[in-house]
Predict the 3D structure of the following.
Amino acid sequence: AQKVTQAQTEISVVEKEDVTLDCVYETRDTTYYLFWYKQPPSGELVFLIRRNSFDEQNEISGRYSWNFQKSTSSFNFTITASQVVDSAVYFCALSEAPGRSNTGKLIFGQGTTLQVKP
Amino acid sequence: NAGVTQTPKFQVLKTGQSMTLQCAQDMNHEYMSWYRQDPGMGLRLIHYSVGAGITDQGEVPNGYNVSRSTTEDFPLRLLSAAPSQTSVYFCASSYSRSTGANVLTFGAGSRLTVL
């Protein structure tokens, strides 16, 4: 069965600190997708990144970076020089492989609440 | 482009009442789904649809009903509301399951309280 674990329930940092959100997943599929979504206090869910299981290159987008390691089944998310606007709940998610009878279902982790204090 | 529209945003029900959460998307997406969000549990899939006329159960389907008569609409029905169904509900869609383009676009959410 597929499973996503975000062991950090809440993280609190001071502005400009770097912070890493951990995500560990379980799947028997050899091909799959991993995602990160952000849920700001306003409540909507905002897509941040999707990563194919064949692509283990790290990705950087501005202050955000993602570290995907198949060997440890982890897909960690780092925010560099955090800002108050980064305060949100962050969800890691996993989906089954494309190209089969893919329903597009996502399995979500429990979420990590990040508080960035000024 | 409205994206995914959910109504109502807030609803209070009494135990045993029924209601329908509406969801509509204008992106011609094939795939639509309903999730519920509860504290400490992330988002859990209730029901999903891979196209008009096709629906299936997700992880937590009990007490909910869905139908997909058109590509655009995917309503979620609570048959007899229970306090355990107090939650925030999200509708989502994505455009092509066959290409694996499974980036979900979410609605704004509907907060339901069952007394």
Q: What stands out?
A: The mean pLDDT of chain A is 91. DSSP finds no helices and twelve strands in chain A.
